[in-house]
Amino acid sequence: MDKIRFTVTAAHIEKAIATRDSKIVGGMESCCPLALALHDAGFPKAIVCDGIIQLDGTSGRQVKHPARIAKFVRDFDNLETLQPAQFELNTEVV
Question: Is residue 93 part of a domain?
Answer without folding.
Answer: no
